[in-house]
Amino acid sequence: MPRKIIIIEDDPDILDIMAYILSEEGYDVLSATNSKPLEEVHLHDPILILMDNRLTDGLGKDFCKHFKEDPATRHFPIVLVSANSGLEQMARDSGADGYLKKPFDISELIEVVKKFG
Which stretch of DSSP H or E encloses residue 70? Predict the structure, then answer.
């Protein structure tokens, strides 16, 4: 069974590129421009959630913090992906399991994902 990754990114071009790259690496990718997939995360059971900070329906860091405070969802790994300055601190404050600074190259994306399965 392929390992599933959820990508939440408000920029459709970046979303498509990330989904394509990870699909080519053999992952089953669910992508969205908003936090909707988080509502049914248990149905998807992802090995990783890659989440931008600026989303169409809120801030990724806030969704991450809420997720990590909930005992039912805290075990799902989340990596914040953003061009925001202070991303490392933002990831730490929100409880994220990692971060990926934009712009990133393909090898950086793959390296971060492989850490989680």
Answer: none
